[in-house]
Design brief:
Two copies of one chain form a homodimer. Chain A has a four-stranded antiparallel beta sheet with strand order 2-5-1-6, with helices on both faces. In chain A, strands 3-4 form a two-stranded antiparallel sheet. In chain A, helix 5 runs antiparallel to helix 6, helix 11 runs parallel beside helix 15 and helix 17 crosses helix 23. The radius of gyration of chain A is 29 Å and the shape is globular. Chain A is mainly α and 695 residues long. The N and C termini of chain A lie far apart (72 Å). Chain A contains 26 helices and six strands. At the A-B interface, helix 6, helix 7, helix 10, helix 11 and helix 24 of A face helix 6, helix 7, helix 10, helix 11 and helix 25 of B.
């Protein structure tokens, strides 16, 4: 890629960004769009424009609001996870900022063996030490945020429950429920409240979903009928539908009657199935509730039976995050699944290299000519060539990054992880390896990879030499990539053009009822599973190119600065958190930043080697100190992110404890019914043992 | 080593064994020796000869007694650790036994590429599968033994206490004691009993030891005086001593007067120092006592503060095992010490190779001639040569094995480990690496090691080739070694010749008082730190040589069989356990046996390679399955050996709980005094907070 196409792409991206920001300023003022630009506020029952008149409002007021918002605001609105994400963005920006005095120096301009290389060596130390300091401070801060949230005097159901898996077979003289209750009552005679046996809800869930579907359709049909009354004849047009496949074939029936009939048919069936499920489909897993946070916290960390594969206890996920189907998977099956998934992901990472190699082949003019000579006439048109050269590789790269997440989330779920946030973390780690191995290293080493693969296999040290030799050549590719990411990516993020268009289309042609409209604009969460690894890739890129192509530094600062600003707006006004993991994502972010730092240090070592600088080995202690730093942080901080600290759990509650409400929070919707609480059945929910003082 | 010298050494070893067994039969019947052969029984207040008349007794009755003793007998007399050790010996014997049908086949006699090699491949699978089965059964059994002991209805102090380390600095408005008490009372309001702050006892211990020394000397002087009254004049001879260095120089004084004076001088000094220690020398560590086993067990496993390096809690060691000086070492200092010790041990292992190379050089006649040509005239005398060839290498090897343990125990203690049994386990692991790396691999690869070191470094796979080529040549060396170990080693063990001689000498020339005599015969414990790794070395040797030199199999069976028999006798009648770790040694034994099995499989792979057997890679899945087996066992069983299971701790107690007695058990002897329990002081022991219901 030559310099002119690089500038072209930068300018175009910037223009797109400006257009999108102006669009946002204009669109967000229209009341009809408030559900797209302020859904979070609407859902909390607030005025979207925060008091002021939306029309007369300064179109850039959102910047002031974002800048003046406090961390506590973010926690209140979007939870600890979002606050932790901003800590990460600030750390990213600050660590890029330490390079600022270096902007005008490029190591590429320094002669081989020059003593001026010492300055770069000192800089590498300086950058690393600043990074350690920032990371340490951030870890401590996040730890405090987590502690503050967990010691909150509000009652949170998951702090009173533990998840018990791998329960051994039921003894002959007991029911499953009795088995669990007697086991926990003997260990926790004073604080055990009640247990909830996990049931196989496949059948009941199917009926429930069917019933809910008919209910929705009935509301829709009634709305259509009511509207038709207003618009056409006073008696209205009764909506009809066909009963066959997808409503396309079969008998034509009156919708309202048909759905009502179906509902009254399914309701007793659901109740019967609920009872059958609770009585007969009990599984070897349970949620156990305690009347004390400390007991629940310490039970979640303790070994209960002598074998780890029986009565395996861990902290309960939030009710909304529980992956019910994964709860009944046995310990060694979970382990096996995990390793199989790891192998699959490793293979996928390896074979993704092949398309990536083609992406990389696009990035140089010579390769284009060489491989696609039959297209030569087209490329001779300068304008087309410039556009293609400027965008194609980066767009291909971004498309590649967008294809994976769903696959990775699916694979992570297959591992048997019991909570949604954990699945997203697991997917995010996998995604990071993808981006770094296939994206960063793949693109960098690029076309030469397969040729040099044998060399690397024989002598792993040569990877460093290859990196040192090929990295500088790819600098502009990544500069353009980062610029595209933040200008176009954040422009789209802020303006929400696509959700807006989709919403308006849906509202016009599909949505009839209130519920359907709400579904059409409901914003979802920040989507950490993809957002975090992409940011991590930018951290890796900016760190690794910082010294050899210092132009990337302002791009890095802009990426994290703009990201912070725009996502602050989105977190406060748009997205709605779908779970709260109390900052459990942080240790992953921390490790990945450190991994990027080590990669940076190794790259520098390689690059110093390429410059024939004899004192390059002085960087080796730095790499070792990074590993020690990682070890110390992990040892000191990590355990609190894996399990609750008793000190934190022992803080007093202000609310009165309604154990029944906590228990209810965990009943899956398909089992919720007034008749379920039927004490005549020895079922999975019944209150056989009213042991706790609050029972 | 030629065949005749091999037979010579075998026969001599057997003769020594027979002589020692006869000596034992004769000596153990003499009443004067009962303190050497039955100290365990004497200490338990039992009749050493179990009812029968010692003179008329069958000299081989001990064999019947050992064979008929049950596992429960061993647990009662010698604790769970000893029972676990017998499980290990049985497993060793049984796994050697599986080879028995192979005795007459030696792989050395099978031609290259022969299809008869298939039989050996199948055998390797068979041996491995039997080993898995035996190990699995043994792990399960040991786990049950541990659980049974821990759920015992007897009160055991360590089950009610936890060890708290890394306590943060004292806040200004509190004492250390108040800080600890308020912290734990807020987390465990119902079950917290009391805390004991760890103090720096260096000074007080010095005074205490000095005082105890004088007390002993006073008793000794009084005994001498009383005896002199009987033997010489009726007024007796008052013993005297010199006050200077080692009692050799200085003023001559009357011993009884002098020591009495010293005692009355030191007693108030000790009391003052005790008070000062308890008040002013409190450290950042404590023992915390709970009124419930379950709480103590779950507290030991739970994270208390958000940072792991503050309020670090673990299960308390037995009172008799506590290493007080190690309790106050901070988390990261412990970690650092540990890694430094690991590096030191690794270096020591490497440099021990040098003397071992010489040992190995002795084992072949050619080398002897080559290196020690100046001694040629001596070696030409056939008798001397035969003796030297038969014993020198093995004796040198055994001496080498005996030199290390003290060093390794010392190093392990420096790691900052808080309990004696843990130190012995850590030393035992180190010792195992020594024996396998320096002993087994060192002797095997031997003189060629340094020459081939560069080859191995460049291509680690070549280690296998080298092992395959050199192993068969060393078979007789190890056969002799194993034979020496069990014939001479167990002969000495049973006959206790050395302790007997030392005891009689001491009693005759040194001991005056009853306490001194008891000290002279007090037997000590089984000494797992050295015994286990030596057995492990035999396991490794027999497994690795089983197919290429099947003669080693009966030796292995004999080693473990005889070991079982003789140590059963020793465990029941001689040794006194100095601690009880409830079988915590087992996971180490298990891992090492598995490591030996993997080494065996790799050796077979190498040996098949040397035989140019094309299907040798069929052994690779076996190696992988060993690793999976190790993983599964570790996952399933290990955690219970690291921390108590709540299910076990929740069993009810039969005794009434005397919390004060439990607390007292942990007061170090140098701080024991009637005046210590002085509530006017806010000291490390005082009962500021009588929180527990039993207070």
């Amino acid at each position: 890629m030559d310099f002119s196409s690089f500038v072209t792409s930068l300018i175009t991206a910037f223009v797109i960004f400006v257009v999108l920001v102006i669009l946002f300023a204009w669109l967000s003022r229209r009341p009809g769009n408030k559900v797209i630009y302020y859904p979070n506020r609407l859902l909390r029952g607030m005025d979207p424009f925060d008091g002021g008149n939306h029309a007369s409002r300064n179109p850039f007021a959102w910047i002031r609001e974002a800048l003046s918002s406090s961390e506590q605001d973010v926690i209140t609105v979007s939870g600890v996870d979002a606050a932790v994400y901003f800590v990460f963005l600030s750390t990213g920006r600050a660590s890029n900022g330490t390079f600022s005095h270096l902007e005008k120096l490029s190591m590429g301009n320094v002669a081989d063996k020059s003593s001026r290389l010492w300055a770069f060596l000192v800089t590498t130390y300086w950058v690393s030490i600043v990074a350690y300091y920032l990371l340490w401070k951030a870890y401590k801060h996040v730890s405090e945020l987590r502690a503050a949230a967990l010691m909150s005097p509000e009652v949170r159901a998951e702090q009173f429950a533990v998840l018990v898996r791998d329960i051994p077979p039921v003894p002959e003289d007991q029911t499953r429920k009795e088995q669990i209750d007697s086991y926990f009552k003997s260990i926790y005679p004073d604080t055990f409240y009640r247990s909830m046996v996990v049931t196989n809800n496949k059948e009941v869930n199917k009926i429930y979903e069917e019933l809910e579907g008919y209910k929705k359709k009935l509301v829709r049909a009634e709305t259509i009928y009511a509207e038709s009354k207003k618009t056409s004849k006073p008696e209205g047009v009764r909506p009809t539908n066909k009963t066959g496949f997808l409503g396309l074939i079969g008998e034509k029936v009156d919708s309202i009657e048909y759905y009502s009939e179906k509902i009254s048919e399914l309701t007793p069936k659901l109740e019967a199935e609920q009872k059958a499920t609770l009585r007969d489909k009990q599984q070897a897993a349970a949620l156990v509730f305690f009347t004390s946070r400390v007991t629940a916290a310490s039970a979640a960390q303790s070994l209960h039976a002598t074998m780890l594969d029986t009565w395996n206890v861990m902290d309960a996920p939030e009710p909304r995050q529980v992956i019910w189907t994964n709860l009944t998977i046995k310990l060694f099956e979970r382990q096996t699944r995990q390793y199989i998934i790891y192998i699959i992901v490793a293979l996928t990472i390896f074979f993704y290299m092949i398309p990536i190699t083609f992406v990389s082949a696009f990035t140089t003019l010579e390769n284009l000519k060489k491989y696609l000579s039959f297209l030569k006439p087209v490329y001779n048109i300068a304008a087309i060539r410039a556009v293609l050269e400027a965008y194609l590789p980066q767009i291909a790269f971004i498309v590649f990054l967008d294809l994976l997440p769903k696959l990775l989330l699916f694979l992570s779920k297959l591992e048997g992880i019991p909570s949604q946030s954990h699945i997203e973390r697991a997917a995010s780690v996998k995604f990071f390896y993808f981006t770094v191995v296939d994206g960063f290293i793949g693109v960098t080493v690029g076309g030469t990879f397969f040729a040099t693969f044998k060399t690397i296999e024989k002598d792993p040290n040569s990877l460093l030499t290859i990196l040192g030799a090929t990295l500088p050549g790819n600098a502009t590719f990544f500069l353009t990539f980062v610029a595209l990411e933040f200008f176009v990516g954040y422009g789209l993020e802020l303006s929400r053009i696509f959700p807006l268009i989709i919403f308006h289309l849906k509202r016009k042609y599909l949505c009839k009822t209130e519920a359907e409209v709400k579904e059409a604009w409901y914003p979802g969460d920040l989507g950490y599973a993809t957002r975090v690894p992409e940011d991590m890739l930018v951290v890796t890129i900016t760190l690794c190119y910082s010294v050899m192509a210092p132009l990337i530094i302002p791009f890095g600062v802009l990426y994290f600065g703009l990201g912070w600003l725009i996502l602050r707006n989105q977190a406060l006004k748009v997205y709605v958190p779908s779970y709260e993991s109390y900052g459990r994502m942080w240790p992953h972010m921390h490790s990945r930043i450190l991994a990027a730092l080590v990669l940076y240090q190794l790259t520098m070592l390689a690059y110093f080697g390429a410059k024939k600088f004899y004192y390059a080995p002085f960087l080796v202690p730095l790499v070792i100190s990074s590993l020690i730093f990682a070890y110390v942080c992990n040892k000191k901080f990590y355990r609190f992110f894996r399990c609750p600290a008793l000190e934190v759990a022992s803080h007093e509650l202000k609310e009165t404890l309604h154990m029944e409400r906590i228990f209810r929070a965990y009943v899956p919707p398909c089992l919720c019914s007034e008749k379920v609480e039927d004490d005549r059945f020895e079922d999975a929910l019944s209150h056989v043992s009213r042991a706790g003082p609050f029972a």
